[in-house]
Request: fold
Amino acid sequence: MAEVVLRNVTKRFDNVEAVRSINLHIEDNEFVVLVGPSGCGKSTTLRMVAGLEEVTSGDILIGGDVVNDLPPKDRDIAMVFQNYALYPHMSVFENMSFGLKLRRFPKDEIKKRVDHAARILDITELLDRKPRALSGGQRQRVAMGRAIVRNPKVFLFDEPLSNLDAKLRVQMRTEIKRVHQMVKTTTVYVTHDQVEAMTLADRVVVMNGGLIEQIATPQELYHHPKTRFVAGFIGSPAMNFMHCRLEGNGAGLRVRISDAVSLPVPSAHVTRYQGLTGKELIFGLRPEHITEPRRGAVEGISEFSPTLDVVEPMGMETIVFFRVDGQEICGRVDPGSAAGPGEAMRLSANMDHMHLIDPATGAVL
Amino acid sequence: MSTAALPLRTAGTFGLRASLSRNRRWALITSYVFLVVFAIFFLIPPYYMVVTALKGDAEMAHMATNPWIVADGITLDQFRILLTKTDFLIFFRNTAVVTTCVVVITMVVSVLGAFSLGRMKFWGSSILATGIFLTYLVPDTLLFIPLFQIVKALGLLNSYWGLVVVYPTLTVPFCTWIMIGYFQSIPKELDEAALIDGAGHMQMLTKIFIPVALPGIIAATIFAFTVSWAAFVYPMAFLYSADQQVLTVGTVTTLIRGDVYAWGMLMAGALVAAAPPLVIYAFLMDYYIAGLTAGATKG
Reply:
């Protein structure tokens, strides 16, 4: 039993509120990722759970007990740091066993646990080496091994992959996921990389300005963002946002983006948006929903022909940029059908995936 | 066109490489010339000391001999007389006792002080750290007058234990300063990892910080050793009987009687006195340099 619960947790540094009264309930064995831009309070939140920062107000509970005043060592947590924080003068074995030694575990138990963790992480051959003789990826494994041997209630990861190069980062991401599947433990993971968040998490917590914007599964976050911030933060390239006006069109509705372009709202969405007719709103549509016209087009598909500004071939797809009424829009098209820059291209918007956002509150309607 | 351009460009690249290596050779030659001049300049005094210490009194007294070589045969008489007929061994023992005590006291105080000032942020810690360094800037030639009163009040006048009390005023500030810089250069995640692993502050210091900061600690140890081994003003001011005297002052006062200089023994004494620092430097030099430079920059 090791749920982690944050109740109205606030952290203030002098006059700056880094974390503003957040509430979060992490289930036993759940893998939760805190994600957001730098300065959003995600690392501070993790450090408060670890006991490295004091809580200004509110409560943090681990396994049902309030741990606000417990020092880190008594919270039964283990943490993996961005720069690994391996003890440079100790061998890999000593690094991994340090915490157990301080807790006066018997020698054979220490050896058993270290060997077990080393096998999981495939670092058995490295146990006698010093950290300086290891590569970045190996150091990261040792840092994880140091956490695993403790068999703690909660694993905390503070941007553990940020110091690795792109290729290794992808490998280690898979490794972390594999380890979590083998060693089922409640895990809180902080990153600014939304791909890490989406691929690793059972649930993602998107933070911004010290507040939680949304807590949801990766799929829900992607398809049903609650705020403009979440909609824009998750997904790459980011969602397109365009100023628009919602207009009545007989029984249906149309989203007018410019004098020339207006797109029909699918009938399934009409009831939801009916009350917003005539309002100035923000229209959101992901780049993958702006494509070349595809066969089997159904209702809700709407075509237009902009002139392309920039064309970026990615191999499996081509990203195209164009402007509508001065607003830059991005679409993802099949490489075979992409026109060149300066040329007009027939594109279609899949309005089934449209979002409308209140410009005043930023809420997705 | 292109075939004609190719050899030209190759020649150009080659010419550039040749001029680069010529530049490099000149830089090397110049630096070696200066290094050799420097080495000769600094090695002349020790050479002269060795030559003088190995001569007999008769050769030294003879004005016509060449002072740069030993002409009448090498003798160890100067060393024998120095070690058997003078108080030199007492001075040596006193110096060793004083230096050992001072080094131990200095390292205990400055490691603990630097750890708390460098790693545990508390109210006024940075002002305190600067203040410690400022005390080092007061020269001992000024300090010995008020310190005389203090040593006298402690009843330690004319006792080498007085030096054990007084020398740390010179060594602790500087060593603490070196160590603060060194401890601060250690990433803070290391103490956080240790905290989470279950270490208390004392375990963090002994198991993580001291081993990681060993080069810095050795640099500070060498400094403390050198200061207390070579100090002259304080023993001159606070000690006056031979049984309490240390090497620096003792050698000079016993081997110079009025205007009679026992040159051979003076040189022999200086050589023997210089041996321990020399041995320590030779063994710890790599650490010493690493320590002085590593604390200066982050990472």
In short: Residues 216 and 293 of chain B are 9 Å apart (CA to CA). Confidence is low (pLDDT under 50) at residues 1-8, 294-299 of chain B. The radius of gyration of chain B is 27 Å. The longest helix of chain B spans residues 2-53.
